[in-house]
Design goal:
The chain has two helices and 21 strands. The protein has about 350 residues and is mainly beta. It has two domains: about 160 residues, no CATH class; about 130 residues, no CATH class.
Length: about 350
């Protein structure tokens, strides 16, 4: 979907103090009138607790239809609601006790919304826990809740990019245009956070009980749609959008994905940086930036009735904001709200 592009900030005009008249050519201030909210998510480095930050001073160059990497456009959302549960307590002294100052006792905030589209990342965020790719199974594979033994992975060769995969032609015959592929490493007893581009799961020190060589590709968020295939050696797979993890190294595994599956349970929680943008009808913008949002509920859907027996199934998601330390003064912060007035609007 397209939306109004951001334009560079014009001069901020307005009246002086009191009831002085507004300068000619400037518009009086008013409450923003917005229609919808648009969601963008970006990875958090879970191993080092490093989020992706949004710089509002550079918002004039933020293209809502083509956000800068690593932000990912997840489309419009509905029923966006953010709630502050932070508690501010008075400090009393004297006799009789009187309020001398205030302090923040608790710092907490939540966000809830409904995604209007189903995609890999929307499904993963709404699932709450790790979410698996259903890999193309080998013929006669034993049934499993997440898919049986998969067709062996094709292998990338040197020279691949984030949008073009060069693949060993002896291993890529099953990959065709229109296929979804996951591109990631083999599981070779790694532990900790795994997944190229974004942490997709956490493997405890005991490892993966199944010892499945394809385990990381099963949980990986590094997925893309193949739009064309050139079988001239090496096989070339052209992708619709860049891979989240960028250009893959040689010998990375590539497998086709037939769908996605999540489960109720597990100890892993999705954590992402989030940016919610609300375009105003008069050219102003509101941004809500959450450096760290962690899923706080399991998979849930809502049914929106359409004509006749049809119902539109939408993904529900709820998140808890986790703190970051603001380098400007050392304070802890959960969310940053930015308002960019339209050009020539007074404040």
């Amino acid at each position: 979907m397209s939306t109004t592009p951001l334009t560079p900030m014009g001069p901020i005009g307005g009246a002086g103090s009191g009831s002085a008249p507004v300068s000619s050519g400037f518009q009086p201030a008013s409450s923003p009138a917005v229609r919808r909210m648009r969601a963008y998510f970006a990875p958090v480095d879970r191993s080092h607790t490093l989020p992706t930050y949004f710089d509002p001073s550079q918002a004039s160059g933020f293209d809502p239809d083509n956000p800068p990497a690593p932000w990912i456009d997840l489309g419009w959302v509905e029923d966006f609601a953010r709630k502050s549960a932070s508690k501010i307590m008075p400090v009393r002294a004297g006799a009789p006790a009187t309020v001398q100052e205030q302090v923040r006792q608790d710092l907490e905030a939540t966000v809830s919304l409904r995604f209007l589209s189903w995609g890999k990342l929307q499904l993963a965020l709404a699932a709450g826990s790790d979410q698996k790719n259903i890999l193309s199974p080998q013929q006669g594979a034993q049934p499993e809740p997440y898919g049986g033994v998969a067709v062996p992975a094709a292998r990338t060769v040197a020279g691949s990019s984030a949008t073009t995969l060069l693949v060993d032609p002896t291993t890529s015959a099953a990959i065709q245009a229109g296929s979804i592929v996951t591109v990631d490493a083999d599981y070779t007893t790694q532990t900790g956070y795994v997944g190229t581009g974004a942490s997709a799961a956490f493997i405890p020190p005991s490892g993966v009980s199944s010892a499945d060589v394809d385990y990381i590709r099963r949980v990986s968020l590094n997925v893309a749609l193949v739009i064309s295939v050139d079988t001239s050696p090496p096989s070339t797979l052209q992708l619709q959008l860049p891979l989240l993890g960028g250009a893959p190294p040689a010998a990375m595994g590539v497998q086709t994905v037939v769908g996605f599956v999540d489960r109720e349970g597990g100890s892993f929680f999705q954590e992402w940086s989030a940016l919610f943008a609300a375009p105003g009808e008069q050219g102003d913008w509101i941004f809500y930036h959450y450096p760290r949002l962690q899923a706080m509920q399991g998979a849930a859907e809502s049914a929106i009735k359409l004509a006749g027996p049809l119902a539109w199934t939408q993904l529900q998601a709820q998140f808890r904001a986790l703190p970051v330390t603001d380098d400007s003064d050392g304070s802890q912060a959960l969310c940053y709200r930015s308002y960019l007035p339209a050009a020539n609007f007074s404040i």
